Amino acid sequence: MRITEILALFMVLVPVSLVIVAMFGYDQGNGFVQASRFITMEPNVTSSSDDSSLVQRDQEQKDSVDMSLLGGLLVSGFKKESCLSRYQSYLYRKASPYKPSLHLLSKLRAYEELHKRCGPGTRQYTNAERLLKQKQTGEMESQGCKYVVWMSFSGLGNRIISIASVFLYAMLTDRVLLVEGGEQFADLFCEPFLDTTWLLPKDFTLASQFSGFGQNSAHCHGDMLKRKLINESSVSSLSHLYLHLAHDYNEHDKMFFCEEDQNLLKNVPWLIMRTNNFFAPSLFLISSFEEELGMMFPEKGTVFHHLGRYLFHPSNQVWGLITRYYQAYLAKADERIGLQIRVFDEKSGVSPRVTKQIISCVQNENLLPRLSKGEEQYKQPSEEELKLKSVLVTSLTTGYFEILKTMYWENPTVTRDVIGIHQPSHEGHQQTEKLMHNRKAWAEMYLLSLTDKLVISAWSTFGYVAQGLGGLRAWILYKQENQTNPNPPCGRAMSPDPCFHAPPYYDCKAKKGTDTGNVVPHVRHCEDISWGLKLV
């Protein structure tokens, strides 16, 4: 028994002694470290260093999510693999200096709920479409869902800026936007709204009649005004109206931008719209929209910048074109310069006057350096001095690209910068209905929007899209008149927003013509088209 007690006491004392030595040990040779080097961890309590690292990691994850959602402009919940650009675009673009207002974010969230409730496939949509049936009586209710349908029209740049305008109008009037475009449209763009679609169903009741819609159609708003067939009583029985807001619209079509006509249109369930314009500036001149638009866009010249980034996300096929080209030719540059060249006279070939104008612009504005002459051209720059500028040229032909590439290959620059000239494609002429042509066009617009500085051509909606998506104030190459070079060759844009090429010149209250570019300070005439309107 005595031996057993001694062994038991030994078994207890030895472990206790080891613990004491460990806590108050020595730091000699390979001995135990000093007790002061231990960090005592209380249950469920982290050290201050661990706590700060966790906070930092959480903040980094939050910042990453916030950046990918563009400051709350976008919502989460989409399957990432279905639209890679939605979650990856922020990795290729500098953060925008323009922040969306809280009121705009609130309007977008409210619109998303409306679209989910009233979009294709819902009972409300089915009931609303029944109103379009010829034998349908007026007893059928649309259950509060109203629609504006954008008809596919014009080139890709025009389509993009006009859809943004129609979407803005939809938000202002509590309508659901549906776009005609079919499979090609889905091939170019991701769906912008969660758990629903913005594509007009192929079997839409009026789809077969679209080709016949025009300014003399029975349900054309402008023609009905001309024939005095539209008023408060007659409009209540209409299931739909056709709105002709294309560049060739007449004075009666333009009455769409009057307060009185907006009051008539608000009760029509279906509005079918054909437009190739960015008509947002004229919406700011309608008094009933003025206050709402002011809260949505405190920075007036950012309408397309915000709505374009919200709506238009390249499909995975197009995103592949964008990212592969960016990584191959633009990623390693110290500075990226975009140069969009559009000469509307495609038969003229390479014009010496246009070439001179381009070079004068990029060199006078210090976008690209001048060429070096004399002894200094033989001096080799140090690594610190060496700067790579990548120039992305987009043009239907290769002529201007070849001139710039040869010029900067055969000659050094006064700044010793190395200039790389790159052009993704040269399609020869615009081919609006070809899928691969539109894929390349969309990819090049987006690539231009990723540059640090941008030069675009006057009148070109291709350039407007790039400028707006990038939030850039581009340098605009002025259109040549009477075969003479403009002086100066280019000028800086007042804002990133596109120009409305065909605005109305009419005072709805006074019922007479007026200069709509001098009504309010934030709607002015465009830099490149003297009669156009632009938000600034």
From TrEMBL:
Entry's transmembrane regions: 7-26
One record GO biological process: cell wall biogenesis
Membrane topology category: Single-pass type II membrane protein
Molecular function per GO: galactoside 2-alpha-L-fucosyltransferase activity
Signal peptide (residue range): none
Domain of life: Eukaryota
Cellular component, GO annotation: Golgi cisterna membrane
EC number(s) per entry: 2.4.1.-
Compartment(s) of residence: Golgi apparatus, Golgi stack membrane
Alphabetic keyword roster: Cell wall biogenesis/degradation, Glycoprotein, Glycosyltransferase, Golgi apparatus, Membrane, Transferase, Transmembrane, Transmembrane helix
Function: May be involved in cell wall biosynthesis.
Family listed: Belongs to the glycosyltransferase 37 family.
PANTHER family in UniProt: FUCOSYLTRANSFERASE 2, FUCOSYLTRANSFERASE 2-RELATED
UniProt protein name: Fucosyltransferase
Organism this protein belongs to: Arabidopsis thaliana (Mouse-ear cress)
